[in-house]
Amino acid sequence: xxxxxxxxxxxxxxxxxxxxxxxxxxxxxxxxxxxxxxxxxxxxxxxxxxxxxxxxxxxxxxxxxxxxxxxxxxxxxxxxxxxxxxxxxxxxxxxxxxxxxxxxxxxxxxxxxxxxxxxxxxxxxxxxxxxxxxxxxxxxxxxxxxxxxxxxxxxxxxxxxxxxxxxxxxxxxxxxxxxxxxxxxxxxxxxxxxxxxxxxxxxxxxxxxxxxxxxxxxxxxxxxxxxxxxxxxxxxxxxxxxxxxxxxxxxxxxxxxxxxx
Length: 261
Fold this sequence. Notes:
Structural class: mainly alpha
Shape: globular
CATH architecture of the largest domain: Orthogonal Bundle
CATH superfamily of the largest domain: MetI-like
Radius of gyration: 24 Å
Distance between the termini: 41 Å
Oligomer: single chain
CATH topology of the largest domain: MetI-like fold
CATH class of the largest domain: Mainly Alpha
Number of domains: 2
Helix content: over 70%
Mean pLDDT: 84
Number of helices: 11
Strand content: under 5%
């Protein structure tokens, strides 16, 4: 029986890898991608990066303005994430099977979360760009809407995992809906929800760079400006600054997660 299971598992694994290789080769054929040419140009690309993407003394003079835009980007990401989390919380309470008001609002909440979550943040930025123009408000709403959809879904799943015994006990004792949420659901779910919020702050700091290129705000706009003017030394400074900030935020988030979870 064990040998039969091993052979079956090996056969399934072989079929999976053969299928994966086949899909990869088919995709390369359809997109005219040449693996050999890509490997051959790799040393040249690395050489260009080392000869152009370095921080010079002149580029360091731009560091105060880079830092200012970085701070603007960080606060935009935090603001959009926290406000989206508040709205997502109310929608998640209606969408969860544990705390739903009725089946109609539960289904509606899940549909809204799915729609907003599956629209890419770049699409949101381009759609909102037509209405609000190139400004920080466009970037805020693009981050807000994408974050809202993701957090609503994450919060619904988190609340659904809540132990139903405490909820049923409070309900049986005559507690109101808000008392049930405050006393049973939130204390158990809040650590995981905070973890999701921290994760989205990290994600939005990265995403806001791309959004800034489209909306003409934040560090993304500065990156686009110097990239188009072919000032690659400043581009390198901006890129490294973004990486350092993202890693710093991630380390802080990981520490907070370890404390609360």
